[in-house]
Specification:
mainly beta, 10 strands, 64% strand, globular
Length: 146
């Protein structure tokens, strides 16, 4: 279970409130192996022609002496229900965009619980992933790029 945030979000943000380039600092803690890795890179959010928000991350993951480039693309789309929904690049649903409240993603046999918090000046995405062979805490901190 995710711990409560030290301070609640002061503003409920939409993905369109976070457009631009962000510095990405992510820690990945594998609680089963008791090792922690990092991702350092950037995240860009921009509006696509269809009104969705294109979310693209690039960076370098370091686990011990191993270093590898990483990237991920997501689409945050407005739904007919008036809410925003996050999708993987291939169109599969990931999770609802609910600022300051827990979100879930079932990926059998694993379960992911996430939390999006922050302000337009800096935000955080935190996931816990648990399953038969997985127990991870993935904590991403995004700050404005200089």
């Amino acid at each position: 279970m995710l711990p409560p945030e030290a301070s609640p979000p002061t503003t409920l943000l939409l993905p369109t409130d976070l457009l631009g380039r962000w510095d990405l600092r992510r820690t990945v803690h594998d609680r089963l192996a008791d090792v922690t890795g990092t991702v350092t890179g950037s995240t860009v959010l921009r509006v696509d022609d269809d009104g969705s928000v294109h979310w693209h991350e690039t960076g370098t993951m370091v686990f011990g002496a191993r270093s590898t480039p990483v990237w991920r693309t997501l689409a945050v789309r407005p739904g007919r229900d008036g809410r925003w929904h996050v999708h993987f690049a291939d169109g599969r649903p990931f999770h609802d965009w609910i600022w300051g409240a827990r979100v879930e993603h079932a990926c059998a046999p694993d379960d992911y619980t996430g939390l999006l918090t922050g302000t337009p000046d800096g935000w955080r995405v935190r996931w816990e992933a648990r399953g038969p062979a997985k127990d991870l805490v993935i904590d991403s901190v995004l700050t404005p790029s200089a």
